[in-house]
What does this fold into?
Amino acid sequence: MLTTLDSSTPEGLRPVLQPLPTLTSAGTRLLEAAGELFYNRGVRAVGVDLIAETAGTTKKTLYDRFGSKDALVALYLLDRAHQWRSFLLERIELPASARSPEHSVLAVFDALETWMGGQLRGCAFVNAYAELGEGDHPAVPVIRAEKAWMRALFDDLTGDSAVGAHVHLIYEGTLVVLTAGGDASGMVEARRAVRIALASNG
It folds into this structure.
């Protein structure tokens, strides 16, 4: 089920991810350990033994808290999505009418550049999807929901769904470039592409 941010949130940004569950201290340690390991080594490469050992718990505790490794992967991405969303919303001004569309959209790319500067392996969602693909893994809906929220954000910031779709494609392409290529010029080109997209629809 989807929930909402609050009554002041623009209508276009109402769809959000599921809320994070309340965890015990052991559950929190497991999620933190899993998050670091999944991000740095890859989802498929990390086993539950290593996660439990890193968290200072047991496999039984892991299964008791999360049920399966797949569920833990999904929660890792859900937690990361909430972190990114909080980070981003602190850095852009809503509603979009408070600033020009260009200013608002470029603020997202500024936030992305700051965020990605501390992410040595690029985008966690791009990496996870590359490993998990289109199957029935419980993490896939989390990835899709995060992408849908970003699309809704750009629709709101630009005030036009067609322009929002264009800018969202630029954003997603930028994530792939920064993840796969590590090309520092990617952000420069992304900002230029955003300005062109907004000007052509102005």
User: Anything to note?
Assistant: The chain has nine helices and no strands.
